[in-house]
Write a structure and sequence with these properties.
It is a single chain. The strands form two sheets. Strands 1, 5, 8, 9, 10 and 11 form a six-stranded antiparallel sheet that branches. Strands 2, 3, 4, 6 and 7 form a five-stranded antiparallel sheet that branches. The C terminus is likely disordered. The protein has one domain: C2 domain (Immunoglobulin-like, Sandwich). It contains two helices and eleven strands, in the order ββββββαβαββββ.
Length: 181
């Protein structure tokens, strides 16, 4: 069956500039992405003697302020809250790492609406420090920095696993799967 003449060879983009492309245009560099598995296990030490509940919030350090994940709420009546909550997400290395915050949510919905969540402590982990370990992982207690020096510090027990970064030319910015074990 005759399908016509074969197409003309395609020239690379470096040989033929696109119509309307500025002379100082720099093409977008490929992204380095990595799958991350982060499990929040439990919190301890110095939890408030107040009513309400606590949860952990994860946010990226750079380039994506809207990316925030939260664990389920745990009532403060438990002396050592246990989550066993795992997040799996695909992340760009350019975000540089993540910050975990231990949040106190008030028991009254009216108070919560006006004051929001109180940060009890926070810690950060960079992708570089995680990638520099032989196992590409970190597991254990992370000390939390209190927001004010007068408060007693807390800590979180977490497990973070990662695989080596891969280059991607087109990858959705975040692919998020959250599940609870």
């Amino acid at each position: 069956m005759y399908r016509g003449e074969p197409p003309a060879p395609v020239r690379s983009s470096s040989q033929v500039p696109a119509v309307g492309t500025p002379s100082n245009f720099t093409p977008i560099a490929p992204r380095e992405t990595m799958p991350v598995y982060l499990t929040i296990l439990r919190a301890e030490y110095g939890l408030p003697k107040r009513r309400g509940s606590i949860q952990v919030r994860l946010q990226l350090q750079k380039k994506c302020s809207a990316f925030k994940l939260r664990t389920p709420l745990i009532p403060l009546r438990y002396s050592e809250p246990v989550w066993m909550h795992t997040w799996k997400f695909q992340e760009e290395k350019s975000t540089e790492g993540f910050t975990l915050e231990l949040l106190h949510r008030h028991s009254s919905s009216v108070v919560q609406m006006f004051s929001g969540s109180e940060v009890l402590g926070y810690t950060s982990l960079s992708w570089e420090s995680l990638l520099s370990t032989p196992t590409l992982s970190c597991s254990g207690w992370l000390s939390l920095t209190p927001p004010m020096p007068v408060t007693k510090g807390q800590s979180l027990y977490v497990c973070v696993f990662d695989s080596s970064p891969t280059s991607a030319t087109v990858v959705p910015h975040h692919q998020l799967h959250s599940h609870r074990r």
